[in-house]
Amino acid sequence: MPTTQEHANAGWFTTTHWSVVLAAGDSSAPGRSKALEKVCETYWYPLYAFIRRQQRSPEDAEDLTQEFFAWLLESKHIGLADRDCGKFRSFLLVRLKHFLCDQAKKARAQKRGGGEPVLSLDVKLAEEHYQLELATDETPEKVFDRSWALAIMKQTVSRLREEYIGAGRGELFEELKRFQTGAEAPSYAETAARLSLSESAVKSAIWRLRQRHRELLREEIGRTVANPADVNEEIRYLISILGG
Q1: Number of independent structural domains in the chain
Q2: Which of 114, 125, 29, 131 is nearest to 67 (CA)?
Q3: Average pLDDT score over residue span 178-200
């Protein structure tokens, strides 16, 4: 009989980012563009930051990020994508480098897609994040990986929040998330008083939130690698990047 972990592994990879990419390469697949756009909306900032590291202005980086996704959606190259090549972040970065090389060889007379943006990008917020990264002398690739790790974490927290809100426990999440941020957290007694719970109940709730957070993190990272066996390695790498 399959174990709980085997059931979980099966669930992780039914809708991976790789499966979205491969479907996008099939022109007959329904909703192909929307599916890939959804993935791109989650992970566009690491690509934006990488482009900015190429001595590009914020305006150019925004244009190139939009153009890259338009190219990705239109290009036949995506149909050649092979999940066996490894990690989804590596796939996107390699494709971006190829795209930037092509762009450097020709003058951009006009934006792709008739000037219509492919994604809704919050460039003002992105630039604020990028300015905080300028103090580092790390390579653009290292900055890309750190931005990718942060995007993974943000997506995971967003999913966790949605689960709590969906269960009618949004207030509980807002209180408990303070114990997850690494910043100075309130005391158990203060939190218990605000929630009208006992301290032991608060501690149990924090444990459950952390446990679910870990599960969602594994699931989200599982979507970005080609093989379930790579999940632990990717988790260790991304955590090391954030702690570096």
Answers
A1: 1
A2: 114
A3: 87
